Amino acid sequence: MRLTIGFCLAVTMFVVGAAAAQGAAYVDVPVQGRENVSYAYADVLRANPTYETIQIIDLREECREETPVSRMRDEPRMTGSIVSGLSAMARRARLQEREAAREAAEAAELAEDGVEETDLRCQMVEVPREERRISGYDVEYRYKGELYMSHMDYDPGNKLRVRVTVAPAD
Questions:
Q1: pLDDT in tens, the chain (170 residues)
Q2: CA gap 114, 42 in Å, rounded
Q3: pTM score, whole prediction
Q4: 133, exposed or middle or buried, with CB in 10 Å at 0-12, 13-18, 19+?
């Protein structure tokens, strides 16, 4: 019985080993370190840049001059009685008249001087702009009389180093 288990184990290992060896024999891509690789130079015929458009947001300060608007003082609070309400309205009207008279006097004085009072109001504004950038190069090159095209991240110049790999076609 010990021979039978050992025999079955040996047959199993033989079959698995043969299958693994058979799979390794049909690998299309050579394994690193054991590949048939050489390097050569191809003539670059053309390298056309490809572009991408990106959106950039700049911040810019915009300022404008505004003539000041007379600022109304807070309205007096109304109490419960009608008399105090009328009194508050009368005070408010007198204050508005005084403020208007003062502003008119200031405006007349400034008009005599030829200067108009203004406030400078500034704020940051987003200004979008588009920018075209080179995203890569479409390169056409010739190696051993054959034409090839590749997209590359850089301009290769007049010569392009190419990797030549030889593997069985079957």
A1: 444 555 544 444 444 444 444 433 333 444 555 678 899 999 999 999 999 999 999 888 888 887 766 544 554 554 455 556 566 777 787 878 888 887 777 776 666 655 566 778 888 888 899 999 999 999 999 999 999 999 999 999 999 999 999 888 87
A2: 77
A3: 0.43
A4: exposed
